[in-house]
Design a protein that fits this description.
This protein is of the alpha/beta class and 254 residues long. The chain is built from twelve helices and ten strands. Bound molecules: guanosine-5'-monophosphate (2 copies), manganese (II) ion and sodium ion. It comes from Undibacterium baiyunense. This is EAL domain-containing protein.
Length: 254
C-alpha cells in the first residue's frame, strides 16, 4: 500500500490521536494552556509525527477531513478536562491554510463545540505568517469571524516568515509564538538573544501576548523571565503527552 493509500485508510479507520504540550506561565510556572499536536498511531509503525504526513495530507486534499477529526478529539478531551478541573486555559489547535480558508470552518466549529458542550473560549487557533500575508483582506475577514465567535488566534513560528510586527498590528491576533530556532542558542548567541528581547518588547507595545517555543533549559527560561515573556513551551517543562498523561501532569503541577 502506498503511503498516500495508508493515509487515506488512516482517515477511514480514525488512526489519528492528539498529544498535548503544556503552555506554561513564565512567571508562575503553572500550566496555563496546551498545544494540541496530531500523531498518527500507525498499525505497524507505531506513533508517526506530523512532519511525516501533514504535507502529503495537504497536497492530497485530506487535510480538511483530518482537521475535523482533530477538532472532534480535542473538543472531547476539553469536555473531559473541564469536567475534572473546571475552567482550564485554552487549548491551541494548528490550522493549515486550507482549513483557515474553508468557508465552512465556523459551521463545523459550531457543530462540534455544541456536540461536546464546550465554549469557543476553550480554543485558540495557531496560524502561520504566510497564511495571513498572502491575502490580507480575506485573512482579516476570517480572523474577524473566528474572533467574533469567541476563538482567539495566535501567530505560530513567528520570525521565520517575512511579516513585520507593524503589519501584525492590523491583524486581530492575541499572541505570537516565537519560533524555536531563535530560542535554541539563547543566551550564548547574542544575536538570537537580542532578536528575542526585541520581539517581546515590540509585541508588548502592540498588546500581544508572547509565547516562546522550544525552551529546553533553565538559562533560556531565565532570559525569557528577564524580558517578561508571558508563556513558554518546550522540553524543559514537558514534551507533548497523551491526554491521560497531560491530565496527570496538570493535576500535579497546578
Ligand atoms: O508535534 P510536532 O511538534 O512534531 O509538530 C510538527 C508540526 O506539525 C508543527 O509545525 C505543527 O504546527 C504541525 N501540526 C501538529 N498538529 C497539527 C494539526 O492538527 N494540524 C495541522 N495542520 N498541523 C499540525
Ligand atoms: O506547531 P509547531 O510547528 O510549533 O510544532 C511544535 C513542534 O516543536 C513539535 O514538533 C514539537 O515536538 C516540537 N518541540 C516542542 N518542544 C520542543 C523543544 O523544547 N525542543 C525542540 N527541539 N522541539 C520541540
Ligand atoms: Mn504550533
Ligand atoms: Na512552531
Amino acid at each position: 500500500l502506498s503511503f498516500e493509500a495508508q493515509l487515506r485508510r488512516a482517515l477511514e479507520n480514525r488512526e489519528f490521536v492528539v498529544f498535548y504540550q503544556p503552555k506554561v506561565s513564565v512567571l508562575s510556572g503553572k500550566i496555563v494552556g496546551a498545544e494540541a499536536l496530531i500523531r498518527w498511531n500507525h498499525p505497524e509503525n507505531g506513533i508517526v509525527l506530523p512532519t511525516q504526513f501533514i504535507g502529503l495530507a495537504e497536497e492530497a486534499g485530506m487535510i480538511g477531513k483530518m482537521g475535523l477529526q482533530v477538532l472532534d478529539i480535542v473538543c472531547r478531551d476539553i469536555a473531559q478536562m473541564e469536567m475534572a478541573y473546571g475552567a482550564f486555559g485554552r487549548v491551541a489547535i494548528n490550522l493549515s491554510g486550507a482549513q483557515f480558508n474553508d468557508p465552512f470552518l465556523l459551521d463545523e466549529l459550531q457543530k462540534v463545540t455544541e456536540f461536546w458542550k464546550i465554549t469557543p473560549e476553550s480554543i485558540e487557533f495557531e496560524i502561520t505568517e504566510s497564511m495571513v500575508m498572502n491575502n490580507h483582506e480575506q485573512a482579516i475577514a476570517h480572523m474577524d469571524g473566528l474572533n467574533a465567535a469567541g476563538y482567539t488566534l495566535s501567530i505560530d513560528d513567528f520570525g521565520t516568515g517575512y511579516s513585520s510586527l507593524a503589519y501584525l498590528k492590523r491583524f486581530p491576533v492575541n499572541s505570537l509564538k516565537i519560533d524555536r530556532s531563535f530560542i535554541q542558542d539563547m543566551p550564548a548567541d547574542a544575536n538570537d538573544t537580542a532578536i528575542v528581547l526585541a520581539i517581546v518588547a515590540m509585541a508588548k507595545t502592540l498588546g500581544l501576548k508572547v509565547v516562546a517555543e522550544g525552551v529546553e533549559n533553565v538559562t533560556q527560561l531565565d532570559t525569557l523571565m528577564s524580558c517578561s515573556c508571558d508563556e513558554y513551551q518546550g522540553f524543559y517543562f514537558s514534551k507533548a503527552l497523551p491526554f491521560e498523561e497531560f491530565m496527570v501532569l496538570l493535576e500535579s503541577t497546578n
